[in-house]
Specification:
The complex is a heterodimer.
Chain A: H1 3-33, H2 60-63, H3 65-103, H4 114-132, H5 142-160, H6 174-206, H7 220-254, H8 262-280, H9 289-312
Helix pairs in contact in A: 1-3, 1-5, 3-4, 4-5, 4-6, 6-7, 6-9, 7-8, 8-9
Chain B: H1 2-10, H2 23-34, H3 37-51, H4 53-56, H5 64-73, H6 77-83, H7 93-120, E1 137-143, H8 147-160, E2 164-165, E3 180-185, H9 188-213, E4 215-222, E5 226-228, E6 236-239, E7 252-262, E8 272-282, E9 290-294, E10 300-302, E11 305-322, E12 327-329, E13 336-337, E14 344-350, E15 358-365, E16 368-371, E17 374-377, E18 386-394, E19 414-416, E20 426-430, E21 434-436, E22 442-459, H10 463-482, E23 486-495, E24 498-507, H11 514-527, E25 540-542
Classes of the chains: A mainly alpha, B alpha+beta.
Chain lengths: ~350, ~550
């Protein structure tokens, strides 16, 4: 296949992935909607995927086991269908990434610009979700994850899309693979942890319910533990990415292992916030609510760093999102990178 | 003694109001507050917040030109920002104050914990609580074995799982511990925790060594010229406060050539790859010559010094002959790129020209073209080079001995050379052309284009300490996150013909789910012996924490 063919395959695959994520989102929303009993019944019931079927009295229709079983079956079916659609979409997502890599000459890893980073980041969010689906019982997270990924992919395709280009020189290093893979994996896991923490806060406000969609979300203790476990996985990976491989590569490419570049600053801020989260979980008075708020702040700083800071600061050496600005001269004394094309 | 007593009694202590603290108590209270987890948490958050301005406001240590540009645009804010050190946040007193407080808090937290840990490291697991069934995670079953057999077997099972066991009968035979067994594991979690926090200090020490004893320098070297590593050779030089001139590695290096590959097609056309500065260097003046291909991501290390290729540009070779026909300035002049098209700005000074000094400033177009009458460069490679410069004559301000940038022309006491019609005279030279200046000032010719490279040269001592610190921190972190400290108690009591066994588990990390562990320990305890003698219904496993609900259960 030619490079152009690979590129168009990649573009088509991301489109297909987007459509399937959207379908998955619709199906999962349908799944949640069927948890609600018809208005006639006044009292709704929760079947919880068959786990906890609590009938809270009311019309006889609601206590009819046949009706309950049929509804439970429908919810289960929709849940499974949604996951299958997500798996298909994830496959398309993967094909798209491979296509990006093979479309470049020479072939490379698909991490050359913001579009590719964003597509990779959202891919890892889905991948981690699917991998941990059974282990942590993440079915309740399905509509949020698919909704999130659909949104991020739309942002990527509409605003960030750029044609396949060879890696800029400074990116052309095997550290790219190590650094970006670890950063993106941590991003995916932090995002899932953030979703769990957001739901923790929502649940804390709504209270334990046996009806409606929130009844699908597990108890506060389980949410807290799931969030902690995912964060406990992501935090060392993030440490490895931004405090070990990042500085080593920065030292190779820019001569300074830590330069307070805006991207570095925000990676550091993210790290500090998550360190605070882990401490908060073990501190009286900060457990639970405050820790969950910290996790949400963490995920905000994470995604701001991933996408936002590139548009906020022009002096970043990680400015792969923008045309490099006019280059400073040596008389200014800064470690400026004269000759914009060397910029990373 | 009585004298002393009376002396003490004679000295009436000042009355104290309730709640008032003495200096020592105040110090102790402050120390307690500072080293509390809550304070550490708040300091962490303040540190994160304090790092934000440095990512939004240009930093002089990162991009000095951007700082001066910003200052020009915001004249009223600049003095306020300067007072708050907002242009060098990460060196500022207030930022340092935060992390120093955090470090003190950390040390104050870690040292006592280390002693506590050292005291406890050989401690026995605590005796079993009186009522195991009150613990959140517990199970009970009946066994036909004797009490001693059950406990002996539990010892084997738990020991094989890496648990430390409480010595049998520490309270003597018949004591309250005789019918029970205490087991604990995960002692290394605290070690991991301590390592992580101590390593943070290591990293800071490494960082401090680097900024105190190291230096950063930048230099532009023309192709074919030699650089000797002394502070005078640098264009910009930023030493740490403890860096001495004796600390330079005495190397020499020559840029023999610079290779570059321009992309001519695709969406990245106009950008370049495969930058390669071919160097010849000697580690000392006596050392043999060696060569190195200096590329991006492939720095050269000589002694303690790292040499990095970070930029490149063009140096047009311009020759200025004065009114008397003598060469007043010649050779390649470094022009600085203004944008990614490599449109470059530069200055030529000919102070020795007669009858008057000559100064040129203007632009270099690598591939010149006129598009709609506007001069532009259409390609960053030097295919159709052209220089376009204004000419000044008079006093260039070089004679009073003051330092002057080679990239700026002091035109305060110099006059711009004008054409006969009074409009500014402009030199437009293609490669190989010569143009005569008005008023018999002389001639300028454009003889060639040489590449230059910009190198970052630095010593970063302490980088391995910092790296080692972070790696150690990661190892400690993994330990503190994934080693699960757990306690398990087993109690066996004779109950008629059978033995009643109670097992309870406690997770001490706060993140674990001991229900599964408990179930597996119970299964092994029961499965290891006669499986048929106890029925499954005899077991009641109770787990306080509900299992995450699954879609398919």
């Amino acid at each position: 296949m030619t490079n152009a063919a690979w590129e168009s395959l990649s573009n088509q695959a991301i489109g297909v992935a987007g459509i399937f994520y959207f379908l998955a989102l619709m199906v999962h929303l349908g799944e949640w909607a069927s948890l609600r009993a018809p208005k006639v019944a006044k009292e709704s019931i929760a079947s919880g995927g068959g786990g906890v079927a609590v009938a809270t009295g009311g019309a006889s229709r609601e206590t009819d086991p046949d009706v309950l079983a049929a509804r439970s079956q429908r919810v289960d079916f929709l849940g499974r269908l949604g996951v299958i659609l997500t798996v298909i979409a994830c496959g398309g997502h993967f094909v798209s990434l491979v296509g990006r890599g093979l479309a470049a000459d020479p072939n490379r890893v698909p991490w050359g610009n913001m579009y590719e980073f964003t597509v990779s980041g959202s891919f890892f969010v889905v991948l981690m979700y699917l991998v941990l689906f059974r282990k942590y019982g993440l079915a309740w997270m399905a509509p949020i994850v698919t909704g999130f990924v659909v949104s991020v992919l739309m942002v990527a395709v509409i605003w960030l899309h750029s044609e396949v280009a060879p890696l800029t020189e400074a990116l052309d290093s095997y550290w790219l693979v190590i650094h970006v893979v670890s950063a993106v994996i941590a991003t995916g896991a932090f995002t899932l942890g953030g979703i769990a923490s957001v739901m923790y806060l929502v649940k804390l406000r709504v209270g334990e319910t046996t009806t409606g969609p929130m009844s699908r979300v597990p108890s506060l203790a389980v949410l807290d533990r799931t969030a902690y476990r995912v964060h406990a996985f992501a935090f060392p990976v993030w440490t490895f990415a931004v405090l070990i491989t990042g500085p080593i590569w920065a030292h190779e490419a820019w001569s300074r292992y830590w330069n307070w570049d805006p991207k570095e600053v925000w990676a550091f801020i993210t790290w500090v916030v998550y360190a605070a989260y882990l401490h908060a979980r073990a501190t009286a008075g900060w457990k639970g609510r405050n820790a969950a708020i910290l996790a949400c702040v963490g995920v905000l700083t994470l995604w701001f760093n991933f996408i936002g800071i590139n548009y906020f600061s022009t002096s970043s050496q990680h400015s792969y999102a923008l045309e490099a600005p006019a280059t400073p001269g040596p008389e200014t004394g800064g470690p400026s990178v004269v000759g914009a094309p060397l910029r990373l | 003694m009585t004298d002393l007593d009376s002396l003490l009694l004679a000295d009436p202590r000042p009355e104290r109001r309730p709640g008032e603290l003495g200096a020592r108590e105040l110090a102790r209270w402050t120390w307690r507050q500072l080293t509390s987890m809550r304070t550490a948490l708040i300091l962490l958050l303040v540190l994160a917040l304090a790092a934000v301005p440095g990512s939004i406001i240009p930093q002089s240590g990162v991009d000095a030109l951007e700082v001066s540009r910003w200052k020009d645009q915001h004249p009223s804010l600049t003095p306020i920002y300067e007072r708050l050190s907002l242009f060098s946040v990460y060196d500022s007193a207030w930022f340092s104050a935060i992390y120093i407080l955090l470090m003190i808090s950390l040390v104050g937290c870690i040292i006592p914990r280390t002693f506590v840990y050292l005291r406890n490291i050989r401690a026995q697991p605590p005796a079993a609580p009186r009522n195991l069934l009150r613990l959140p995670d517990h199970a009970s079953y009946t066994s036909p074995q004797e009490v001693d057999e059950v406990l002996a077997q539990a010892r084997v099972v738990l020991r094989s799982r890496g648990y430390r066991l409480r010595d049998a009968d520490p309270d003597g035979p018949g004591g309250p511990g005789a019918d029970s067994l205490s087991a604990e594991r995960g002692y290394l979690r605290e070690v991991g925790n301590l390592i992580f926090h101590l390593s943070v200090i290591f990293v800071l020490v490494g960082f401090a060594i680097g900024s105190l004893l190291g230096y950063q320098g930048g230099v532009i070297i023309l192709q074919g010229t030699t650089f000797a590593n002394t502070s005078a050779s640098y264009d910009d030089f930023d030493p740490g406060s403890l860096f001495g001139t004796d600390d330079f590695d005495p190397f020499l290096m020559t840029v023999d050539g610079f290779d570059i590959e321009w992309l001519t097609e695709g969406s990245a056309a106009g950008t370049a790859r495969k930058f390669n500065a071919r160097l010849t260097y000697q580690e000392t003046v006596e050392a043999p010559e060696e060569t190195y291909d200096l590329r991006v991501n492939h720095p050269l290390t000589i002694g303690n010094t790292g040499i990095f290729l970070i930029g490149h540009g063009y140096a047009p070779v311009l020759t200025v002959r004065d009114g008397e026909g003598n060469v007043a300035a010649s050779g390649p002049t470094v022009f600085l790129p203004q944008d990614p098209t490599f449109l470059s700005f530069g200055v030529v000074k000919a102070p020795s020209a007669q009858p008057a000094q000559i100064g040129l400033d203007g632009l270099f177009y690598p591939t010149f073209a006129l598009i709609d009458g506007d001069p532009v460069t259409v390609w960053p490679d030097a295919l159709e080079p052209l220089v376009s410069m204004q000419v000044y004559t008079g006093n260039l301000g070089l004679d009073d001995g003051g330092a002057q940038s080679v990239y700026a022309l002091d035109t305060e006491r110099a006059d711009q050379v004008l054409k006969a019609d009074g409009t500014p005279f402009r030199l437009d030279l293609r490669l190989g052309e010569t143009q005569t200046l008005p008023d018999g000032l002389g001639t300028v010719s454009f003889d060639g284009v040489e590449p230059w490279v910009r190198l970052q040269i630095s010593q970063t001592p302490g980088k391995l300490i910092a790296l080692g610190g972070v790696v150690l921190a990661l190892i400690g972190l993994l330990g503190s996150l994934f080693i699960r400290p757990r306690r398990i108690w087993v109690r066996a009591r004779q109950d008629g013909d059978v033995t009643k066994v109670e097992v309870a588990a406690l997770d001490r990390s706060g993140g674990g789910d001991v229900g599964e562990v408990l179930a597996s320990v119970v299964a092994e305890l029961r499965g290891a012996k006669d499986a048929e003698s106890t029925s499954q219904s005899g077991t009641r496993t109770h787990t306080h924490n509900p299992q995450p609900r699954r879609n398919d259960d």
